[in-house]
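Hi F.,

I've been meaning to write this up properly since the lab meeting, where we talked about keeping a consistent format for the predictions we share between groups. The idea is simple: the sequence comes first, exactly as it goes in, then the structure tokens exactly as they come out, then a line or two of notes. No screenshots and no reformatting. I'm using this chain as the first example so we have something concrete to point to.
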Amino acid sequence: MTLWDANPRTYIRIKGFMEDMPEAYRLRLHDLGFRQNAEVYCLRHAPFSGPRVFQVEDAVFALEKTVAVFVKVEPVEHE
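Output, unedited:
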């Protein structure tokens, strides 16, 4: 499962990054808080395959598919 596959209003945990991910993407995402084992909340999907909106800690970011497909995630259960 990738970050792009996350459903709106769900929590996910970053498990790693695809090996063929461009280094520039990896570094920028790391700077933004998208790190291994970080918990991320998927806020919403923009219409017409637009960017996905994610919350990492207190910040909110929109990621396009060209970036989000490189991030491996797993669902996290919250009560």
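Notes:
The mean pLDDT is 95.
Residues 3-76 form a domain with the SH3 type barrels. fold (CATH 2.30.30.90).

If this format works for you, I'll send the rest the same way.

G.
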